[in-house]
Design a protein that fits this description.
By secondary structure, the chain is of the alpha/beta class. It has 16 helices and 13 strands. The longest helix has 13 residues. This is CDP-glycerol glycerophosphotransferase family protein.
Length: 367
């Protein structure tokens, strides 16, 4: 019996994480189906993305429908990128085994908290993350496979067709990839004229998906529209949801509390960390503990991995410093890569597939 796997895709930006696994499954003759949730105008972008990838998708009206859907599913495995919409007590009513591939590897507490749901297995990135999860959840099953999303960057037969010229930027300049998260973010601290301060760089602005799609982040989109008017700036659109092609053509990254920092560091390229964040009133003053609770202590590792910019006006000098100290930081990057990202051999997806095949419902089901 061939393996059947469903990928619960709460948001489009989960797709780059899932695809290396789905492609490896397809080579093994497995059936793969992506489960999307209706979002109106965004659905046409999802349709185009899934068609381009060569897979099929099924739409549910909302995550609240997921329990009844998976209760009727005949899949061997359902893979999630975040905590399911249903409760722990509902899990026994689903015949499929449930796996977690966390959608990001950043310094937010949710990276660890999501394992409060007892998945049958969680695929983990790196020895340090594995150790911390095992200590916190000793009764759960964790397997260190590496971060499958990065597989295309390390496969010898993988090619990126994107170029600087495609983005109408100057190939004689170094290219800066600004990849902020949505909250807490550095975006609000950058002025409308920020690109003028970095006129000797190409700037690719790759916002988080929510900065493009959530109503509460309209101010982000207003800034992006202003920046896009500068000749040295390219702002990605909502359908350019995959960060990997932009990572490949960039020389240096600028980011804040985002997993993009770990991902870019895996390429052994310099990173500048924006260690300044805009927070809502409900995260300030006496309520500042909420921000500390949202950001895991893992963020302290950025001190070893990056060049820190303590404020927006320190970015330019930090960029210069980061390129001068690239060799000095190589050892730190390598150690961080092993601990926090895991193996980068382009075979993470294959390791996940090997596990799924050997623990399918037709064979060695997990206890």
């Amino acid at each position: 019996m061939s393996l059947s796997v469903q990928f619960d895709t709460q948001h489009l930006y989960y797709l780059p994480q899932y695809l290396p696994v789905a492609q490896a499954l397809k080579k093994q003759g497995a059936k793969c189906e992506f489960i999307f949730y209706k979002e109106g105008q965004l659905d046409s972008i999802k349709d185009e993305a899934i068609a381009k990838s060569g897979f099929s998708a099924l739409y549910l009206d909302s995550p609240l429908q997921s329990l009844s859907f998976y209760q009727q599913s005949t899949a061997d495995w359902v893979i999630f990128g975040n905590k399911p919409a249903f409760s722990v007590s509902d899990k026994p009513t689903i015949s499929a085994q449930l796996a977690l591939m966390q959608h990001g590897i950043g310094p937010k507490a949710c990276y660890y908290d999501v394992s409060e749901f007892p998945f049958d297995v969680r695929f983990v990135e790196g020895s340090e993350r594995l150790s911390r999860l095992q200590q916190r959840f000793p009764d759960l099953n964790f397997v260190d496979t590496g971060y499958a999303k990065l597989d295309p960057l390390f496969k010898s037969d993988s090619t990126n067709t994107m170029s600087i010229e495609d983005l109408d930027l100057d190939q004689s300049k170094k290219t800066l990839l600004y990849a902020p998260t949505f909250f807490p973010s550095s975006i609000e601290y950058l002025s409308e004229h920020w690109p003028e301060q970095l006129s000797d760089y190409n700037i690719i602005v790759k916002p988080h998906f929510f900065s493009h799609t959530k109503q509460k982040y309209q101010a982000h989109r207003s800034l992006f529209s202003t920046w896009q008017k500068y000749s040295n700036v390219y702002v990605t659109s909502v359908d350019e949801y995959n960060l990997l092609p932009f990572m490949q053509i960039a020389d240096i990254m600028l980011s804040d509390a985002s997993s993009a920092i770990f991902e870019f560091a895996a390429l052994n390229k310099p990173v500048v960390w924006c260690d300044f964040y805009h927070t809502r009133w409900s995260y300030k003053g006496l309520l500042s503990f909420r921000l500390k609770r949202r950001l895991d202590p893992d963020i302290s590792l950025f001190h070893k991995l990056t060049t820190r910019a303590a404020s927006a006006n320190k970015i330019k000098s930090a960029l210069n410093m980061s390129q001068q100290s690239t060799k000095a930081r190589q050892a730190a990057r390598k150690k961080m890569l092993n601990d926090m990202v895991g193996r980068t051999d382009g075979k993470c997806g294959e390791r996940i597939v090997d596990f799924l095949l050997s623990h399918s419902l037709s064979g060695g089901r997990l206890a």
